[in-house]
Amino acid sequence: MMAQFLEIKGRYPDALLFYRMGDFYEMFFDDAEAAASALDIALTKRGQHLGQDIPMCGVPVHSAEGYLLTLIRKGFRVAIAEQMEDPAEAKKRGSKSVVARDVVRLVTPGTLTEESLLEARRHNFLAAWAEVRDTAALAWVDISTGEFRVIPCPISRLSPELARLGPREVVVSETKEADLAGLVSDSGAAMTPLSRGSFDSTGAEKRLCELFDVATLDAFGSFDRAEASAMGAIVDYLDLTQRGKLPLLRPPVKEMPGGSVQIDAATRRNLEITQSLSGGRDGSLIAAIDRTVTAGGARLLERRLSAPSRDLAEIRARLEAVRFLAGEARLAEALRADLRKAPDIDRALSRLALDRGGPRDLAAIRAGLAEAGSIARRLDGDIPARLAGAAKDLVGFGDLVAYLDAALVAEPPLLARDGGFIAAGHNPELDEARQLRDEGRGVIARMQADYITETGIQSLKIKHNNVLGYFIETTATHAEKMLSAPLNETFIHRQTTANQVRFTTVPLSEMETRILNAGNLALEIEKRLYDGLKAMVLDTSVLISQAARALSEIDLTAAFADIARGEDWCEPTVDDSRAFEIEGGRHPVVERALKRTGEPFIANDCLLTSGETPAIWLLTGPNMAGKSTFLRQNALLALLAQAGSFVPARRAHIGLVSQLFSRVGAADDLARGRSTFMVEMVETAAILNQADDRALVILDEIGRGTATYDGLSIAWATLEHLHDVNRTRALFATHYHEMTALAHKLDGVENATVAVKEWEGEVIFLHEVRKGAADRSYGVQVARLAGLPTAVVERAKIVLDALEKGEREGGTRKHTLIDDLPLFSAAPAATARPVKQESQLEDRLSALHPDEMTPLEALAALYELKALTGD
């Protein structure tokens, strides 16, 4: 057995080997030690190899999926070796013969299909990048839904594309492994190198043609050698991991660069589109606006937010559909009620194609297609073209639904081997076998009653197990009677346990044979019928996939309409201009968070339109006042509009945005040896080198990670470059008040500030963005709010006053800081906290308990307080 394990393991050295032994998957040697540690299970030993104990651990087959999920999340790959024959067959070759085993599947992060291993509302993409001479391409597939796409992708575009897709695994040529390791790692995906042969473009094209049963790929579009290479590598990898059982893939779709808004990885991270900065979904844009009610609709929402469209006709068609359902509240709610009952058809179909499905997947397709018909009937009449097209894809499944409804029970089991999923009356042969099986059970019950009468033993039972079959069981006390004449002529002793004695009879053995044959026959018939139903569904898979996409489209449209109606969002005007006019804009995530606390969100305008000249707002104001929120909210409004959603604003006019860039926040990149300032400069450089005149750029505090004058000069030059060279629309937040002078020098730059109010030494943040410049940053006041010790705050005020005085005097006295601020001498004594003056009014107020006062007492107290004020 160990020889067989080592032979199989030798073929999969980079994977943990799940070696099937009866009801367990066992692991040995290094695999056992790694798995035991990762899964927190016991590590034991089994025999010896080369004089050393063999480490061993195992997991039950029936609960293996949970362990697989843990291992995959921890970065392991798992090869599953199943028993390929019955142990009884192996014994026929000799008592020491080993049961034949082989790997039936290689489980990797990008090839998951089981419902328990996947996130229902997120895609699970497997990607491949290929380079052929001077061209390169990225292909990706979700085998759980069948989506298959490819896009031209030079290596300079690989990082943003991986950021957009968020694949779980990326396949690369072994010759490119070293070059791409950093890029793939940054995306959070696992990287899998394949041989150069997997990326051969000629062989790749042949594999694709065989997969889709076509003579040429021209029927699906025009693909260059790099695109064919990337797609072919995916198919080759799927053939390897699925051991020849290829998933049900849709024909490949070629995406063109420029079809969606360019958003790089840093911008996606800063805007928290699908994931918050803390790493989870909570706090992200998608979590705040997701009102879809189907898994397919949620996955479509993620795709739309990750890649907002640049096709004006497409955007307007989406908005038209949302507008229609936003105005038809009753229809929208009826559609959402139907959609809630629609299972995940795409993934059920994929599991059936890979032979990992069961009767429950057939029932899911039945239920989904039945709801599709109901939804299509609701979408009748004068409706927008986009909804009409989706409704058209939902019809034509009446016969299939009726057949599945007649064939399947209402609640079928998960696995076909469990039986009991074919409805009574569907197949006469099955009904006959079941009748014999069920009548046999009735006969067993009657036989038990007869034996009780014959023996007089009321506790006598007829039971069944897989070893003995049917047997008669009684207590040891009564066994003596059955072993004595005349009962011993009828009852044949079979087994004695600690407390029970078991017997059989000739009639009971004969009945057992009849029942077992009937039961096995019924199960075989059900399995045959299951295969027929599965084939019927797969023959219609193309149309079913179209229906699944249509359901997702309707769900997302209804979800956008629901949030537009419920949260008072407006329809944006999206055109081919350079306009960016937002009135009463709100940040959807922050507003949602504030609603939970009962606080209002302060809406703000953003008018970047300035004729043909660049439109840039230079935003000043204190920390904590909401500058970053204002910057991000406007970027998100543009993203939502081009994703096809209404936006949180009173009015929005947005000229098509080609690129979205965000440089907000700061963090070290210790793994690459980059300081906060270096990260800031790298991200700023990427913006200045790429942004075109249709881009929307938001920049926050450029240059703050270095010396004051260095930072000011970098920020100054950056703003000038955006204005003169990039000629883009931008929001530029800064604490360098000197930069406000640029508004008088550059035609397209305007000053704006976040308003604050001072009251008795306190700073009140109004969160209102107004035209004009801030006079100072209020940093010391914010520091006090953060809880800095009073002594530190008071000392900071003294330093600030001296610095501002030196600035006003022109900085001519070089000794000012040293002489006037003894920074390097002993620290001054801490400023004493002001002694609170006694107040008779406050004392009287603190003594009042309104909940315990009558109205008359409260009125009297009010007069008393008024008298204390002296009025």
Automatic annotation (TrEMBL):
InterPro entries with a match to the protein in the record: DNA_mismatch_repair_MutS, DNA_mismatch_repair_MutS-lik_N, DNA_mismatch_repair_MutS/MSH, DNA_mismatch_repair_MutS_C, DNA_mismatch_repair_MutS_clamp, DNA_mismatch_repair_MutS_core, DNA_mismatch_repair_MutS_N, DNA_mismatch_repair_MutS_sf
Record: residues binding ATP: 621-628
Record key words, sorted: ATP-binding, DNA damage, DNA repair, DNA-binding, Nucleotide-binding
Keyword Membrane: no
Domain DNA mismatch repair proteins mutS family: 695-711
Family: Belongs to the DNA mismatch repair MutS family.
Function: This protein is involved in the repair of mismatches in DNA. It is possible that it carries out the mismatch recognition step. This protein has a weak ATPase activity.
The protein's name in its UniProt record: DNA mismatch repair protein MutS
Species name: Defluviimonas salinarum
Gene this protein is translated from: mutS
